Amino acid sequence: MGFLDTLLGRSKPAPPDLDRLFALSTAALTLEAAAGFTPTGLGSVCFRAAEGGAFARLQQDVQELLDADRGPQVEISQDSYGYTWLLAQHDPQDVPGLVTDLHAVNSTLEGGGFGPHLLCSLVSFTGPERQRLALVYLYKRGTFYPFAPLPGDKRDNALEIQVKGAVGADLPFEDDLSRWFPVWGAPGL
Amino acid sequence: MAAPHLAPEPATARRTAAALAPVLLVYAATVAPAFLLGPWWGLAAVAALLAAAAVLCRTMDRWVLWAAGARPVGADEEPELHAVVERLCLSSGLPKPRVAVSAAREPNAFAAGSGPGSAVVCVTEGLRERLGPAELAAVLGHEMAHVAGRDVLAGCVAAFPTLCAGLVLDGWALLWRGGPLGALAAVLLAPLAAVAALLYGAGTLAAMALSRRRELRADEAGTLLTGRPGDLAEALAKISARPGGKAGAGPGAGPAGRRTLRPVSTLCVVPAALTASHPPVADRRARLLTVARRLAAGA
Q: Is the ipTM above a cut-off of 0.90?
């Protein structure tokens, strides 16, 4: 079981468990009750667009898949580092619907053999004082962490720890704090 | 969840061990003369070497950074560079390495350290000036592949004799510019320089087998990490295009510009001194472009 096999997605011993994304619905309820954070109805999936035709076709498939279904707003954008973000929009109350869309995008890309290119998925929330917050799902680790950006490329670490305390029991949390990577410029945040 | 990405391939581990054998011979050759003084001296030299090796494995990253004139930079200093590395960590599942920048003008990059937990990736100012964000990500992907493949330590162990010898040679070359007194010192130290030159040559040869293969492997794995072989091919072309316009030129082209990274040459993404430690850039680009064509065809 080599590094290349893992990167190529061959014979994974512990495949990323995308179904963990569904735990976000419960976490959203807990977060609202415990800290007053409400979902914004925005969620996004980040992936590295590979060169070439196969990936371009797949990207089209994903967009069609989401567009066909009740016509939710799906926007494709590129960030300044060359990564592609798919932004899905739902009624703020409909977190399960949003999570289902994110799951569909992830599993379509994974099914197309582009699992190695998936980075993360996130669902965003706003706080009682309009603080911004995202719960980020790390595809490669199958874990979640909070990301709370402040103006001027700073992070609200206190809030992130507080959120971990609130929803840590609902989600498989990332224990390694050094992997709570900031996702600056994520659409929908 | 355990990170399966970090499991080293057993076959690769064996091959790495085999490739390290000549490197160990170089190490042995440096202590062998002590046995001429007597068995106790010899044993003392071996003990000193083993102790040095143990310390070295833990502090290798600092040595390499120091030799390359690089310093670690924080996320507040270099937010963009850190963001590129973080994205690569997100897509590879690797822990984040430290990030360093070398003031060297030559465009190059290297990874050092003793494993994924303690790795450092370094880019030069020259590299950042010449490459766009996508190409920079491709080069850093190559370096992250070195980290993931656990060949940073093997690479560092192999590079160390060359590193020391390179530093001695650089210092010796500087003496010549130090006026008559410097020249006198240089002549007196000529035997030391000769030994260093010998060690430099032997060390580079020994590191060759290891590093040529690990470069190709890092090209491939790094490309899978970013999905963009074209970017890496483009970056390699830009890096190897010397200021004089001679692609992949020998040691004669612009030696002043490449002096600073010579001690860590075998670790760099393109060799800083002797091309023999790496496969020719043209070959690497050809391989990458084949992958790019395969992706374009949708295979």
A: no
